[in-house]
Amino acid sequence: MRIAGGTAKRITKRIINFIFVIWGVVTLSFCLQVFTGTDPAEMIVRKVNVFATEEQIQAVREELGLDAPFLERYADYIKGVLTGDLGTAITNRQPVIENIKDALPVTCMLVVMAMAWVIIFTVLIAAISVIRKGGIFDNVMRIICIIGICVPSFWLALILLTAFAVQIPIFSVISDGSFKSLILPSAAMAFPIICIAARVLRAAVLNELKSDYVTYARARGFSNAQIVYGEVLRNALPAAITLFAQYCAALFGTSALVESVFSIQGLGIYLMDSCESMDIYGISGSILVCGVLFVLFNTLADLLSSAICPAYRRKAV
């Protein structure tokens, strides 16, 4: 009963924290619209008529409710977010939520593939490096990870595109949204993260190997591989899981450079196009989605770490 009560308390605490953080993200997104110094009404009118009068701009401002008091606009924005209304994009006069729905699926596929590479190779590299600590593999991977951490993902994307789509035409230059076309961009996004996460997980595993239960397992005759894969890796995962979640959420907002290299019309490109055209509704809507995803992934990572690692669960309560 105590375990069940502790679990319920922990989940309730995470949900409350999640709600408050989401409220903060929504508030910051609203402030982005209000305090940027950009008048959406003027941009909408002058997009149609460069020589529009102040009376025409004021009429659109009243139509959009931009002349309402701050608290009234804030309440309307909260209501709109709860009902899925993020405003109308200035660029194409379509609902922002519809633009995001069109751009988000391909970015989701790209991020999922990238994180799949991260999970597979991070665990393998970290585990083998620990088992063969100080060996050739460990030293080579240390050098590769140091180089990989310094390599920008967009530069790596250009190298991969040139090598495997131009010089050796295995993949197409322009993505068509298929699984094969997303292999190169997902690899470009995943490689720097793998280099960072592998070093973090390796350090966490080596720290766990100093624990008393590892000494006891060795005294019982368990091999190093059995200890690492059996208990140590599970107890070292929370640090890596938190890192995975943060990078996974960040990739939704930072995917623009890789998407632009491979001509992928995803969320990152939409955010970049909105910034170039000063579409304040598109910018705030995209940032709001990225912020919510960031909070959601971190909350799920916290719950997953608690479920996998008992020691982490005891610390989190």
From TrEMBL:
Keyword Protein biosynthesis tagged: no
InterPro entries xref list: BPD_transp_1_N (IPR045621), MetI-like (IPR000515), MetI-like_sf (IPR035906)
Keywords linked to the UniProt accession: Cell membrane, Membrane, Transmembrane, Transmembrane helix, Transport
Chief location of this protein within or outside the cell: membrane
Domain ABC transmembrane type-1: 104-305
Places the protein is found: Cell membrane
Membrane topology type: Multi-pass membrane protein
Record's keyword annotation contains rRNA-binding: no
PANTHER family in UniProt: DIPEPTIDE TRANSPORT SYSTEM PERMEASE PROTEIN DPPB-RELATED (PTHR43163)
Protein name as it appears in the record: ABC-type dipeptide/oligopeptide/nickel transport systems, permease components
Source organism (scientific name): Faecalibacterium prausnitzii L2-6
